[in-house]
Amino acid sequence: MDIIQAIKERKSIRAFKPDQVPQDLLQKIIEQALRAPSWANTQPWEFAVATGKKLKAIQDAFAKRGAAAMQTSQSEVARPGDFPEPYMSRIKKMQVKENRGRTTQMKPEEMEARMVTNFRHYGATTCIYLLVGKNFLYQEKGVNTWAMYDCGSAVQNIMLLATSYGLGTIAQAMAVVYPDIIRKELGIPEDKLIALGIAIGYPDWKAPANEDYRDREPLEEVCKFYGFK
Question: What is the pTM of this model?
Answer without folding.
Answer: 0.93
